[in-house]
């Protein structure tokens, strides 16, 4: 009898600890995304409540990987971090997630929505290859990286919405590529301050712009032409994504809320005459929450 009571107490304590740990893990993911991916945080809040925790876990996973490059001083340390996440994904699909808040929440999402493992591993592979401080050789190479990271994340978010549709996937592919290209543009001032330039070499050569031009923040015509061409490619991808609007299930639209932020950046970049260093582009869009709500209400992307 005593043994049964002890067993019940231990079981109750274990269940309480599990619920508490689970809540802490979910909170960790939300806080991480809010601090490191504020636009993604706002977009996730507009998803259906039942899939928000899973979407936060996916975005937190993406943040963890994206931070590796800037948080290590040696590539070998970065490779070790990537291997941890590679092993974590393998363990998650064996239902033995490591005791890490993001991994625990990701495991719940995988079990709940049968998320495609390929998209998770593709994000890891792309982030790992990007540990080398190597400039993109072409706009195509930048698009491939964006597809492997941002588009893969959108495919996973679509799965949490229960969307399996070829047109939605096509839209996600183009939006992800636009997102990756714009992220590259937005990072130019930061990278330039560290004497690094990652803009596609083929576009820079086309306009005769050197890395030193960007490092010194020169606003010559050829520098602006480089930014114009790259931004135009992002705009083309957004237009392609919207060409599927009538064929994409409306239940998929919440996954594409990030287009509000992408449109805002491109619009302000045009206003700044493609001066990627303009102060207006370094400020947070205070109207983003309202703009996201309006787009959500209009049911478009």
Automatic annotation (TrEMBL):
<comment type="similarity">
    <text>Belongs to the NDUFAF6 family.</text>
</comment>
<keyword id="KW-0999">Mitochondrion inner membrane</keyword>
<dbReference type="InterPro" id="IPR008949">
    <property type="entry name" value="Isoprenoid_synthase_dom_sf"/>
</dbReference>
<keyword id="KW-0809">Transit peptide</keyword>
<dbReference type="GO" id="GO:0032981">
    <property type="term" value="P:mitochondrial respiratory chain complex I assembly"/>
</dbReference>
<dbReference type="GO" id="GO:0005743">
    <property type="term" value="C:mitochondrial inner membrane"/>
</dbReference>
<protein>
    <recommendedName>
        <fullName>NADH dehydrogenase (ubiquinone) complex I, assembly factor 6</fullName>
    </recommendedName>
</protein>
<keyword id="KW-0496">Mitochondrion</keyword>
<dbReference type="Pfam" id="PF00494">
    <property type="entry name" value="SQS_PSY"/>
</dbReference>
<comment type="function">
    <text>Involved in the assembly of mitochondrial NADH:ubiquinone oxidoreductase complex (complex I) at early stages. May play a role in the biogenesis of complex I subunit MT-ND1.</text>
</comment>
<keyword id="KW-0472">Membrane</keyword>
<dbReference type="InterPro" id="IPR002060">
    <property type="entry name" value="Squ/phyt_synthse"/>
</dbReference>
């Amino acid at each position: 009898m005593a043994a049964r009571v002890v067993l019940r107490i231990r079981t109750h304590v274990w269940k309480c600890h599990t619920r508490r740990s689970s809540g802490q893990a979910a909170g960790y993911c939300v806080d991480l995304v809010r601090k490191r991916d504020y636009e993604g945080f706002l977009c996730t809040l507009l998803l259906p409540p039942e899939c928000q925790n899973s979407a936060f876990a996916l975005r937190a996973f993406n943040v963890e990987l994206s931070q590796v490059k800037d948080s290590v001083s040696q590539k070998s340390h970065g490779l070790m971090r990537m291997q941890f996440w590679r092993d974590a994904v393998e363990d998650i699909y064996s239902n033995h997630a490591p005791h890490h808040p993001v991994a625990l929440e990701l495991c719940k999402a995988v079990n709940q929505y049968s998320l495609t493992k390929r998209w998770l591993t593709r994000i890891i592979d792309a982030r790992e290859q990007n540990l080398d401080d190597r400039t993109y050789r072409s706009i195509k190479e930048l698009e491939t990286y964006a597809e492997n990271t941002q588009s893969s994340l959108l495919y996973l978010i679509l799965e949490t919405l229960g969307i399996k549709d070829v047109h939605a996937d096509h839209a996600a592919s183009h939006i992800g590529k636009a997102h990756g290209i714009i992220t590259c543009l937005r990072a130019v001032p930061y990278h330039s301050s560290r004497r690094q330039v990652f803009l596609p070499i083929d576009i820079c050569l086309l306009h005769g712009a050197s890395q030193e031009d960007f490092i010194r923040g020169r606003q010559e015509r050829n520098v602006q032409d480089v930014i114009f061409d790259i931004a135009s490619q992002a705009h083309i991808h957004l237009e392609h994504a919207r060409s599927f609007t009538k064929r994409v299930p409306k239940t998929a639209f919440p996954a594409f809320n990030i287009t509000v932020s992408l449109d805002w950046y491109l619009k302000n970049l045009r206003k700044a005459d493609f001066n990627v260093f303009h102060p207006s582009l370094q400020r947070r869009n205070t109207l983003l929450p309202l703009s996201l709500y309006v787009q959500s209400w209009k049911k478009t992307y």
